[in-house]
Amino acid sequence: MENAAFYIRTNENDGLASREEQLRAIEHYAEENGYEVVARYEDVEAPGKLLFHKPDLKEAIGNIKEREEWSVLIAAEARCFSQTESARHELAHKFSLYGNRLECPDKSWDAFEAGMKNYRREMSGR
Q: Which domains does the chain have, with CATH numbers?
């Protein structure tokens, strides 16, 4: 079994599912994909754009840099990481640098990685 962590972000203004709904989706996804959840990160009622407002997501990033307890961070949907696509691409880039992944039931690591690479190519061409 591969070690994983989960990330939950709730915010009524962003239209995200409830904490309980996200938890069920993540647990089902982890079980279906053979992941053992060893860490949990939750930003309750956190705005969706800036990392500054998400202390648990910042802690998860610190984990991949320092402790390396898990290799994949699972969320119920990609918007839980951020409401902005560019922020999700930057997060995927950061995770890829350390050999870690982001995954969701609605978006595989391959999709995160492909989007991130396209975004970085577009940004370098400006």
A: 2-124 (3.40.50.1390)
